[in-house]
Amino acid sequence: MINVKNVSKRFENQSVLKEVHFSIDKGSIYGLLGSNGAGKTTLLKIISGILTQDKGHVFIDDSPVFEQIQIKDKVVFLPDTLYFFPQYTIRQMAEFYRNIYTQWNEERFQRLSDVFEIDIDKKIHKLSKGMQRQVAFWLAMSAMPEILVLDEPLDGLDPVMRKKVKNLLVQDVAEREMTVLISSHNLREVEDICDHIGILHKGSIILEKDLDDLKSDVHKVQVAFKKNVPNKLFDNVDLLFKEERGSVLLCIVRGNQADVMMHFKTFEPDIFDILPLTLEEIFIYEMGGVGYAIKNILV
Amino acid sequence: MFDLDVRSRKPIYEQLVDKLKELIMNDVLKVDEQLPSVRTLAQQLTINPNTIQKAYRELETQGYIYSIKGKGSFVNATVKSVNTEKLEKVKKELIRLLTEAMYLGVTSNELETIISDIESSLGGGSSID
Questions:
Q1: Which residue of B16, B40, B48 is the best one to mutate when testing the A interface, meaning the one whose CB has the most A CBs within 10 A?
Q2: Most Cβ neighbours (<10 Å): which of A145, A188, A283, B92?
Q3: The predicted structure's pLDDT at residue B1
Q4: Does B103 touch chain A (CB under 8 A)?
Q5: Which fold does the domain A2-202 belong to in CATH?
Q6: Burial class (CB in 10 A: 0-12, 13-18, 19+), B74
Q7: Contact B16/B55 with Cβ under 8 angstroms?
Q8: Mean pLDDT over residues B97-101, rounded?
Q9: Residues of chain A predicted below pLDDT 50
């Protein structure tokens, strides 16, 4: 269980996080999404006890994290830019991890070598970017963390490896209720494994919800009328976005699917189509709501 | 066992519920047969175990499955009550579709022909209660 309470952070005169407040249940896979420079990495570093917050609190299982060895023993953080000791081989690096993490599982480390198929005596810095990432996962999964914090984890992995890594994550979540926190801006990557998502924008959480609820709560509606568009069409509708493409009206509506359908049907449109949104679309329209919209730029 | 479309717009847990219902109603999963554990299914499909848990919970409240603590989930025998619930849903759906059909200009005579066609293909319709 991770509790983030009103955390603020500034670097010199730049405010990066403003009163961020959310919690993650044990055994959940939480996707932290956000625009570029929203403060995702800073937040993750604070949660894993690498940085301190200026204000607020972070609790893991009701204990603060920063400089608390018994808590940090349960947390593994995988940064977006990996760091390994220079000239170290995988075996030596594993040795280091074994000494740090008390829950280290040697048997698992050996078994995972079948998954990753990298020579254990190779120097890590001689491996490719994608392979280094695999090594990082290999070590992280062998440390048997209760909480795994991943910053852009699937960058640089090929589709087969991604599937393997996701599979490993899901197994650990199912088997021993590991909690996973993933940051990403590749929404399709996280859509299938996250159960909760939070969207961070300019240092504040603007949306936090169960992914399935989110998906069944927002709809894309396409309607067209042969005659003029009835002017009461959008009364009593929670409209997020509206666009006219020729005679077809495209709008994003929030609400219960049946209610939305009933509402539009009463106007007897000639074409009517209702679809759930993809996570990518939800992200784009929610961001549009806070003024971070896609503008058609002509150069 | 089955495949899900993770790229689909439909929430994964809804897809799961629908797929499992289909399997149960078509007797692919028989009464008292054990459903795959959350763990195995999560691993097979590479989706979040919590999503599967949620789908199982939903199926349980709808009466399709029952669960025994520490043993797992099993297909429920009381399909009768499930049927009435299903029937309500189908009726609602029918009303919606028929309204749409009529709106598009299908006459009630045409609809009646469709109904009698279906009836004869099902074998007289005497078994429908």
A1: B48
A2: A145
A3: 66
A4: yes
A5: Rossmann fold (3.40.50)
A6: middle
A7: yes
A8: 87
A9: none
pLDDT digits (tens, 9 = 90+) for A121-173: 999 999 999 999 999 999 999 999 999 999 988 888 898 998 899 999 999 99
CATH of range B12-77; options 1.10.760.10, 1.20.1050.40, 3.30.559.10, 1.10.10.10: 1.10.10.10
- Per CATH, which fold does A214-289 belong to? Alpha-Beta Plaits (3.30.70)
Q: Are B39 and A211 an interchain contact pair (Cβ–Cβ within 8 Å)? A: no
Chain B residue with the nearest C-alpha to that of A215: B11
Helices assigned H by DSSP within chain A: 40-47, 69-72, 90-100, 106-116, 129-142, 159-176, 187-191, 211-217, 257-265, 279-289
B5 touches chain A (CB under 8 A): no
Q: Please tell me if residue B39 touches chain A, with a CB cutoff of 8 Å.
A: yes
At residue B44, the pLDDT reads 87
The tokens describing A51, both together, are 């940085």
Distances, alpha carbon A287 to alpha carbons A41, B9, B28, B115, in Å: 19, 19, 45, 49
